[in-house]
Amino acid sequence: MFKFGIFTNKNTPELLNKISCFQTFLTSKNNIKDQNNPNIVFVFGGDGCLLDAIDNFKDKNCSYMLINSGNLGFYREVGIDELDKFYAEFNYDSLSYETHHFLEVSDNYHHHFNGINEIMIASGIKTLDMDISINDQYFMTSKGNGICIASPFGSSGYNHSLGGPLVIEDNGFILSLLAPIQNARTHPAIHSLVLTNSDILKVKVTSFYDYEVAADMKTLHDLVGTEYTIKRSSRTFRLAHIKSVDKYQRIKRAFID
Asked: What is the CATH number of domain 3-95+242-256?
């Protein structure tokens, strides 16, 4: 017996009907629905819905499984039309788990936030100058629309669309530049860089233009000032799987097939 939660940000009648049948299946096996203290949260939607679920339950000690009813569903376990397969194969006691770390961003006033996919410091219309340091050593000045710092979990999202690398294991994090200025004087030395688990990235915005600090495409209004520290968080979350996942086949399914 286990306690489960259900999460979705869609409310179409067809989906709600399937969720109702799904819930009936689980409770018929003597499991208990508990939205406040679940062991596992079943997410009905796409990758964005999974991010919302992790953010919503991140103070709970639970795992997540994505039942994909969205577009890509990179982290899906099964599709919404494959629930018969789920019913036949699901066994809570034999699940495998995949652990990922959050990214932590903080300002100089001790405000901080844990992001899942990426942290961005960017302007949509202005060129920003940013001094970037790694482990308290000056590294480079970025001139462009901003920077994106992605976790391995989020490497297949916006980071991938920027041309950043796909990171298979939960190791390190990725710094990518957004629309960097390229001319004889300001051509960037790098476009993307993979940092290690222990590295600490510091960013100082030296431009006087308005810009945003965001996590997972949501503006972080509580962070203030012009200096930010970004590092791998000690906090983690887990995906649950019916069977062990071949991560290369997951990439193949999402981007190649």
From this structure: 3.40.50.10330
CA triple 249-251-257, angle to 5 deg? 80
Q: Determine the 3-state secondary structure of 209 from DSSP.
A: coil
Q: How many Å apart are CA 154 and CA 167, to the nearest integer?
A: 9
Residue identified by tokens 């000045």 is 141
Residue ranges of E strands in 108-226? 112-115, 118-122, 128-134, 137-144, 146-150, 173-178, 192-195, 200-205, 212-215, 218-219
Q: Which CATH class is domain 102-235?
A: mainly beta
Among 182, 180, 187, residue whose Cα is nearest residue 144:
180
Q: What is the pTM of this model?
A: 0.91
C-alpha 88 chain-centroid distance = 30
CA distance 64 to 72: 17
Q: pLDDT (tens digit, 9 = 90+) per residue, 192-243? A: 999 999 999 999 999 988 999 999 999 999 999 999 999 999 999 999 999 9
Is residue 170 pLDDT above 60, yes or no? Answer: yes
Give the residue extent of every domain in the chain: 3-95+242-256, 102-235
User: Cα 98 from chain centroid?
Assistant: 14
198 closest CA partner among 180, 173, 221, 228: 173
Q: Rg of the Cα trace of the chain?
A: 20
> Residue 114: which of 46, 196, 55, 60 has the closest Cα?
55
* C-alpha 12, offset from chain centre: 25
